[in-house]
């Protein structure tokens, strides 16, 4: 699994792009590529848990313009090896 951590700023473009991004995330979840996603409680960023390999994640990030929107920064991408999963 791969974890993507996002950092947010107050740029208004981020909020304008969010509905299309969330629709895209729902499709990825339905297709089994995304386990979970959501913002931090303080809206400073978000965490996304993907069930894909790195080349597929890179394609997902490239396909969604949200990740290049002002106010959104991909802060880190890390491999995660959970010992307990749903």
Automatic annotation (TrEMBL):
It holds the Pfam family YCII. InterPro entries: Dimeric_a/b-barrel, YCII. Residues 12-81 form the YCII-related domain. It comes from the Bacteria. Belongs to the YciI family. This is YCII-related domain-containing protein. It comes from Wenjunlia vitaminophila.
């Amino acid at each position: 699994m791969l974890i993507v951590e996002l950092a947010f700023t107050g740029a208004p473009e981020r909020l304008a792009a969010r509905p299309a991004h969330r629709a895209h995330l729902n499709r990825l979840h339905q297709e089994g590529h995304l386990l979970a996603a959501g913002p931090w409680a303080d809206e400073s960023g978000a965490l996304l848990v993907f069930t894909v390999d790195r080349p597929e994640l890179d394609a997902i990030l490239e396909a969604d313009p949200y990740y290049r929107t002002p106010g959104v920064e991909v802060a880190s991408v890390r491999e995660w090896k959970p010992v307990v999963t749903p």
